[in-house]
């Protein structure tokens, strides 16, 4: 066999191999096209993948039944989340099964009052300190003890004050001289020693001296301390008793820090006590203490209540209704607000079957409603049920949250 014949045979073998490979590739290509999954729906929209709306993070290549829930997988189209109408689209037939409920933001008013707990305390501005105005000793103490309730003018103790006796004798001697200037000066000295006008008038009337004084309660109330004891020697300015008045009492209410801006000094308050069911005690806020309790994050609101008949006793527990006038505000259901920790979001219904997230500024809550300060307009529809599913889908598709308008 010649070299030319061998070369010709090699050429024929190589050509046959190329034809066979090309034909096989063509038929394999045709076979692959017939078995590939469909990438377009009947409407011509391109399908990216399939997913379970209850588990949107899990993606599937083919349609079918969800392995998680008893429902069919939903297609995810390429044009969702972009184009002229961005948003999350939900098939109308699936809304009921997903539990999506939509309500409109509307103007209304939250409850004008809210309840906090408090306890009754003495009015620390209504306190009387009984002291000895001059040195001497205690002759008699009336039957009193700390905690006793006494009326104004009730006797506490009888004192013997030698300095007063000598000053009164000097005053009578000067008075006999018949010189008004000297008499007035001597009388003024008695006043400066703390002698009551009634005692001075009695000396003028009777012409007799006596350093004895009956100390009486200047106000009615509770005896807090009683230092007077019979036979005890007194120094000038020594405290004999301390009395707390009961005409008015303080009600110290624990106000949560989040509601501190709702209470102002001078506004009315109503208290209900378990000791007097069905009866309301009205008062007003006289102070909001400047420090907050670190453990409970509450502020102390001081309310002054009239205590007719002395029925309100320090230490009693009370429920206090605080608040002001109800003002119109924009309200949505509280469950419609998604709080992420850094901002608050609601899901808006666009009106064409699509939903879009929007940032809002939430205010007070009450009665299942939340106040919206910024980010919504009256009449806009928000999702009140199923919003977390839509928010998750919006995050997957990369939808931009509608930002807040600049503050006015």
TrEMBL record:
<keyword id="KW-0406">Ion transport</keyword>
<dbReference type="Pfam" id="PF25954">
    <property type="entry name" value="Beta-barrel_RND_2"/>
</dbReference>
<feature type="domain" description="CzcB-like C-terminal circularly permuted SH3-like">
    <location>
        <begin position="331"/>
        <end position="390"/>
    </location>
</feature>
<dbReference type="InterPro" id="IPR058649">
    <property type="entry name" value="CzcB_C"/>
</dbReference>
<keyword id="KW-0732">Signal</keyword>
<protein>
    <submittedName>
        <fullName>Cation efflux system protein CusB</fullName>
    </submittedName>
</protein>
<comment type="similarity">
    <text>Belongs to the membrane fusion protein (MFP) (TC 8.A.1) family.</text>
</comment>
<dbReference type="GO" id="GO:0046914">
    <property type="term" value="F:transition metal ion binding"/>
</dbReference>
<dbReference type="GO" id="GO:0022857">
    <property type="term" value="F:transmembrane transporter activity"/>
</dbReference>
<keyword id="KW-0812">Transmembrane</keyword>
<dbReference type="InterPro" id="IPR045800">
    <property type="entry name" value="HMBD"/>
</dbReference>
<dbReference type="Pfam" id="PF19335">
    <property type="entry name" value="HMBD"/>
</dbReference>
<dbReference type="Pfam" id="PF25919">
    <property type="entry name" value="BSH_CusB"/>
</dbReference>
<dbReference type="GO" id="GO:0015679">
    <property type="term" value="P:plasma membrane copper ion transport"/>
</dbReference>
<keyword id="KW-0472">Membrane</keyword>
<dbReference type="Pfam" id="PF25869">
    <property type="entry name" value="3HB_CusB"/>
</dbReference>
<feature type="domain" description="Heavy metal binding">
    <location>
        <begin position="49"/>
        <end position="76"/>
    </location>
</feature>
<feature type="domain" description="CusB-like three alpha-helical bundle">
    <location>
        <begin position="163"/>
        <end position="209"/>
    </location>
</feature>
<dbReference type="InterPro" id="IPR051909">
    <property type="entry name" value="MFP_Cation_Efflux"/>
</dbReference>
<dbReference type="Pfam" id="PF25975">
    <property type="entry name" value="CzcB_C"/>
</dbReference>
<dbReference type="InterPro" id="IPR006143">
    <property type="entry name" value="RND_pump_MFP"/>
</dbReference>
<dbReference type="InterPro" id="IPR058791">
    <property type="entry name" value="3HB_CusB"/>
</dbReference>
<dbReference type="InterPro" id="IPR058792">
    <property type="entry name" value="Beta-barrel_RND_2"/>
</dbReference>
<feature type="transmembrane region" description="Helical">
    <location>
        <begin position="12"/>
        <end position="29"/>
    </location>
</feature>
<dbReference type="GO" id="GO:0060003">
    <property type="term" value="P:copper ion export"/>
</dbReference>
<keyword id="KW-0813">Transport</keyword>
<feature type="domain" description="CusB-like beta-barrel">
    <location>
        <begin position="248"/>
        <end position="324"/>
    </location>
</feature>
<dbReference type="GO" id="GO:0030288">
    <property type="term" value="C:outer membrane-bounded periplasmic space"/>
</dbReference>
<dbReference type="GO" id="GO:0016020">
    <property type="term" value="C:membrane"/>
</dbReference>
<keyword id="KW-1133">Transmembrane helix</keyword>
<dbReference type="InterPro" id="IPR058790">
    <property type="entry name" value="BSH_CusB"/>
</dbReference>
<feature type="domain" description="CusB-like barrel-sandwich hybrid">
    <location>
        <begin position="127"/>
        <end position="243"/>
    </location>
</feature>
